[in-house]
């Protein structure tokens, strides 16, 4: 830590050319500032990753303890129907849920930004509110709402004499989960998009107005294109969120144990491998693969979308 | 330290307010549509509020979206707080402890680090920052099992440290503090402080930290909410119900209520009321600290 900078100089006598040497003198302070974060970062993120990678190369045996097996856990994972089915399921979830969520979030953000509607502040807060609710509580509430016993939807159906809809049946479960995630995160995405809209320079709108563009035209030709980076960020967060789906299915599993099995999502599978089956080595490999899928998926998405915008 | 104008660099304030457009018929249609959307988002919260005022009997027999015959809220709260010798209060306390420590520590580390990355040139600055950015893509839950393996190896699983330490490393917080520092702390101000003879640490704590306050509050809030809402990590780290945070405790009650079906319907009002009590602090914090949420999300999206 360079805490000795007591030499005095006239303020004017500090030309820009001295910067290079100057900054070198303060490099030690720079390291001191980033050290606490980097230490925790290394210990809590890099070390677990490295340790998981290492563990995933072994197998626990009743006789002989831990045995090095190379990539055996990985070759097992890549042909594990339960894991592949789980990955397929969250991929389907991603493909259906995310476009709907982002489209609705975009629509709300545009509506709020248009200046055409009343109560916009109230709507903005209300739509964002679910983000402050823990996903456990969200899943728990929707679980009750879906429920056949005293869920209001079942009650309404009963009132009009219809059969109660079964939101927890196997053919609609993924949709029911998608609804919970939609409820939790639409507001979050909306606020990101809304904030990006607010930073579009006002001159652009003025120019558009001079050219005679109405609100819809302005939205389509100016606002949506300028949202590209924000939409990309939402998309990347959604890839990460979808593929690590865990809390919602875990909570609903208690209500529908026959529909949501122990390998319903890859994360649920990894959890059950580790804590029910005690297969820590294989669970580490599955976690690692899942992390890799998400990592590669996000980067691929960013790479493709930036490349396309350049050409 | 003189001459430096207060920075006006927060992303939100950079543009002039939108000109209000004429409200037309379309405006009313839009308002009505948005109120319908709003109703959807508030529906579960309204249901929760209504349900926590009901007796067990009313919960099962009266319409879910309106109040029952009896107003039983305070009785429910009393039962929730005293069930199993007040384990709920214990869970709430644990959550508070984990969230506040993790958020305070995490935000401080992020502020120090973000400032270091933004304002100092040193070897490896860029490389290390890219490494941290790369970790943004590493999903928290995929990290949880590896983290558990490490913690159980060193004997820290099933202790409060197992929840607090992993929550201190917050790559998004660092990223946010770095870009915030760049826009809010002018180089000239640091140089002026150096000329005045202040040491680097003193400059940070006495001069720049004040300028970083809004960004700091944002990171604090995000980490607070993330730790408060965390479920997967405590679920796998903790065996001892006395160490559970509120999320794991509630989920356990819910599973018990579901497993025994109608037989233990008595547990259902506790789950419902407990859920309400657990989200109230967050909703209140959220309503009062709105500005910081928006700043954080704006900074994250605009300055890609």
Protein described:
The complex is a heterodimer of chains A (311) and B (304). With 311 residues, chain A is mainly alpha-helical. Chain A has 2 domains: 21-48, no CATH class; 78-310, Orthogonal Bundle (MetI-like fold). Helices cover 69% and strands 3% of the residues of chain A. Chain A has a two-stranded antiparallel sheet with strand order 1-2. In chain A, a hairpin with a 3-residue loop joins strand 1 and strand 2. In chain A, helix 4 (81-113) packs antiparallel against helix 11 (228-243). Chain A is globular, with a radius of gyration of 26 Å. The relative contact order of chain A is 0.12. Residues 1-18 of chain A have low confidence and may be disordered. In chain B, helix 1 packs across helix 13, helix 3 crosses helix 7 (171-184) and helix 8 (187-195) packs antiparallel against helix 9. Chain B is mainly α. Chain B has 14 helices and no strands. Chain B has helices at residues 25-51, 56-61, 73-119, 125-135, 140-153, 161-168, 171-184, 187-195, 200-211, 213-229, 232-237, 246-259, 267-288, 290-302. Chain B has a domain at 91-302: MetI-like fold. Chain B is globular, with a radius of gyration of 24 Å. Chains A and B meet through helix 2, helix 4, helix 5, helix 6 and helix 8 of A and helix 1, helix 2, helix 3, helix 4 and helix 5 of B.
